[in-house]
Amino acid sequence: MINNNTIPTSKKYGESLWSKALRKFLSDKIGIIAFLIVLFYFLIALGVWFGFIGNKWDQLITDGYTGMSGEHIFGTNINGQDILERALYGTKTAFQIGFVVAIIAAMLGGILGAISGFFSGKILDVIITWLYGVIDSIPFYLFVAALAVALADNPYAMHIAMISTFWTATCRIIRGEVIKIKHLEYIEATRAIGVSYTKIIFKHIIPNTLHILLVQSTILFVEAIKSEVILSFLNLGVKEGVSWGLMIAEAAQEVPAGNFNNFIAASGFMFILVLAFNTFSDALQDALDPKKVS
Predict the structure, then answer these.
(1) Rounded to whole angstroms, how far apart are CA atoms 237 and 266?
(2) Which is the most buried residue in 1, 155, 176, 196, by most CB within 10 A?
């Protein structure tokens, strides 16, 4: 006779992977703090989006650079624009770029990875692995810069350039996972009863890789923000509005003159968000790891 007290709670009540992951994540205090910081930034982005804050980012308030004051916490930049307003607006830009790039790149990588893994060793797999192998062999910023220049008139040139390269890592990870999944009994059963390959991939395989895609999306979000800063610094990034990358590029003219506020504000906002998102991503990965969830 089995003693119910020896059975883990999650198994006694048929707890799902997602509920187990949530329970584990809620027990991670550092992860929770990181998530709350990310949420705070997201609320700032929403505030800018709806025009509650950051809507004076382009107004010329003074004749030039001014230091910190009660009226302008970070002072004004070389053009006389409020630095805090621009940093707040940059938060919206960061989330807009991060979300678009992360979601599309993760979806593209997930779908191609699932197809490649399911048909491993066949022509589709060869084509997909060859494609991401070629892309990965090209220096990242050189490839992104070339695409950004080629699509210079397109307001989403930078997004397209990042997505074109960011999907490869997700594709490789999902491919490896699907190669293992496709040999499981329930997949073999669906194939035996004649279920189409398309239905198997999109209904039975991809849903079982969502935990990986979620973690990959958080990683890609951070990569998109950091890449935007570098591309904007090289004048290949944001063309409309303002971003932390553009602020740091502007600061290159101010720092030699001893004016550090623009650089401190932009890099400080970015540093805290990236650190929080990385910590949140690590906590999420630990929580969603089937080997660690109990």
Answers:
(1) 15
(2) 176
Q: Determine the Cα–Cα distance for residues 135 and 146; give it in Å rounded to an integer.
A: 13
66 three-state secondary structure? strand
Q: Give the DSSP H or E segment for 200.
A: none
pTM of the model: 0.84
Q: Where are the alpha helices (DSSP H) in the chain?
A: 9-12, 17-26, 29-49, 83-118, 123-137, 140-150, 157-181, 185-192, 197-199, 210-233, 244-254, 261-288
Question: The domain 40-59+72-288: what is its CATH number?
Answer: 1.10.3720.10
pLDDT tens-place string over residues 264-282: 999 999 999 999 999 999 9
**Measuring CA to CA, which residue among 275, 264, 260, 266 is closest to residue 229?**
266
| The pair of three-digit structure tokens given for residue 188, joined into one six-digit string | 């073999």
The full set of domain ranges for the chain reads 40-59+72-288
CA-based nearest residue to 213, from 162, 185, 175:
175
